[in-house]
Amino acid sequence: MQRILILAAGGHAQVVADILMRARDAGARIEPIGYVDDNPMLHGQKRLGLPIWGPLADLGQIDHDALILGVGDNQNRQRLFEQYRRRSECFATARHPAAVIAPDVQIGHGVMICAGVIVSAGSVIGDNVILNTACTVDHHNVIGDHAHIAPGVHLGGDVHIGTGALVGIGAIVMPQRQVGNWSIIGAGALVHDPVPARAIAIGVPAKVKEM
Description:
The chain is an alpha/beta fold and 211 residues long. The chain has helices spanning 11-25, 74-85, and strands at residues 2-7, 30-36, 46-47, 50-51, 66-69, 94-95, 100-101, 106-107, 112-113, 118-119, 124-125, 130-131, 136-137, 142-143, 148-149, 154-155, 160-161, 166-167, 172-173, 178-179, 184-185, 190-191, 200-202, 207-208. The strands form five sheets. It has an eight-stranded mixed beta sheet with strand order 6-9-12-15-18-21-23-24, covered by helices on one side. A six-stranded parallel beta sheet has the order 7-10-13-16-19-22, with no helix packed on it.
């Protein structure tokens, strides 16, 4: 049985906890054991029946087999992932039993896969990625480390999403398009042209916003 500790205890972390509990109830040999969070007002409380043990600094005092991040912000999630990977921590993946994943999909470490997600054949999901509620990832996509595919996003076939990119709620990325590293696609946008690194693209069709 893999005992999993969740880093952070906010709303996003509670979704992670719920996924882990649903996976456990469906037969996965995992057990979420609670949270650590740097907000002292939360210490000693419970969320979804799981305790908030204390700050992240106390992590080493809590018996666990693996970590998973409960942080939505991509940059903070990358920082924490790399910090604890350097300490040789193991990262678990939270995969909701209501997700549909093709057998040949490659999934990295510390990935969050929410209810209703569909990932089709030949896709590669990097480390520490969020595939949020009911997003669809069509065939032969490559999703870079620390990226966040928000609820209701639809990615066509052969799409490449760069490291740390955020594809906002309900956006659509047409087949064979690229979204650059650390770029942001606005909610409801339609990506028809490639989006460069560290850009913000909004609208239908999506246009890069002048900074």
